[in-house]
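Below is a filled-in request sheet from our internal design queue. Each sheet records the structural input a requester submitted and the sequence that came back. We keep these sheets so that new team members can see what a complete request looks like end to end.

REQUESTER: design group, bay 2
PRIORITY: normal
MODE: inverse folding
CHAIN LENGTH: 205
BACKBONE (tokenized):
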């Protein structure tokens, strides 16, 4: 059970989202990238997922189905339509696993960043579920900023960028989240995401 200290940052971010009807995420800072890093990130965002998840074993399939049932129940308050929840969770599973990220961390970040709203736009111009700044489409994508509102494209970019920041911070989740939000070293945003993450944790994470 999250403590009052854990929950307060989430409430504050949630109120900001609910009262103003837009995301109030901070802005990722455009930093110079070496050619090698830029090439690696470009490769990481390129390519599509298979039409259906590849579930290589009975155990893997059972893990996925248990996680989806658990997550779908919680997600229903944000996405009331079952088919939409299924598609969203399938894409989260694929992209988080592909980027080597905990499922609960990605879900917690989406909750804080956008309140699970596909077309959320922050005052800084960040877009979609994971509030990706448009400059990323120029740095490592094809330059089409409008694609950041597409479900898989947004989650692909968001997961790749988060993984990049975590690598840059040598696995320090607190500092990596701060860089993702453009508030490195400040507690409010990482605390909010980590508190939200605990609400989405599942044994397959």
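RETURNED SEQUENCE:
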């Amino acid at each position: 059970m999250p403590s009052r200290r854990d929950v307060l940052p989430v409430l504050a971010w949630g109120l900001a989202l609910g009262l103003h009807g837009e995301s109030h995420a901070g802005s990722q800072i455009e930093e110079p990238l070496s050619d090698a890093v830029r090439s690696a990130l470009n490769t990481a965002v390129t390519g599509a997922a298979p039409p259906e998840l590849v579930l290589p074993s009975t155990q893997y399939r059972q893990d996925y189905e248990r996680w989806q049932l658990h997550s779908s129940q919680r997600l229903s308050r944000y996405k009331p339509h079952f088919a939409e929840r299924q598609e969203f969770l399938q894409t989260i599973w694929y992209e988080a696993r592909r980027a080597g990220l905990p499922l609960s961390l990605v879900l917690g970040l989406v909750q804080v960043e956008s309140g699970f709203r596909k077309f959320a736009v922050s005052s800084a111009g960040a877009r979609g579920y994971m509030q990706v700044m448009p400059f990323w489409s120029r740095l490592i994508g094809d330059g089409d900023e409008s694609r950041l509102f597409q479900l898989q494209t947004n989650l692909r970019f968001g997961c790749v960028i988060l993984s990049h920041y975590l690598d840059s911070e040598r696995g320090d989740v607190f500092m990596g989240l701060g860089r993702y939000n453009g508030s490195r070293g400040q507690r409010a945003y990482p605390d909010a995401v980590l508190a939200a993450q605990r609400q989405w944790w599942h044994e397959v994470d």
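SHEET NOTES:
- Residues 4-17+53-200 form a domain with the Lysozyme fold (CATH 1.10.530.10).
- Confidence is low (pLDDT under 50) at residues 1-22.
FILED BY: M.R.
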